[in-house]
Amino acid sequence: MAFAIAAADLTFSDAGLKPKEMSLEERRDIGIVLGSGGASLSFIEKQYRYYFANEAKKASVYTIPTATPGSLPSELSMSFG
Q: Taking Cα atoms as reference points, which of 2, 5, 3 lies closest to residue 81?
């Protein structure tokens, strides 16, 4: 997460943009193309199998963050407005 925020900050700086000083309308004109390797479906399916087999304690604590790759764009949006 920290690397993505730092990379976005550098990108804005390189482009000469200062989102914190821009109006809401100006910020809405900015778009970010963000790639994600996608969630590891086999990993997620394995974790859900644990849950539905009443073996939830075997499931990884990373199940939810792995299953929600959209959290990174949300973090960037919150950081830069």
A: 5
CB 35 within 8 A of CB 22: no
Query: How many angstroms separate the CA atoms of 1 and 46, rounded?
Result: 25
Which CB contacts under 8 angstroms, 24+ apart, belong to 20-27? 20/80, 20/81, 22/81, 24/81, 27/80, 27/81
Low-confidence ranges of the chain (pLDDT < 70): 36-39
Question: Using CA atoms, how far apart are residues 6 and 43, in angstroms rounded to an integer?
Answer: 28
**pLDDT value at residue 63:** 86
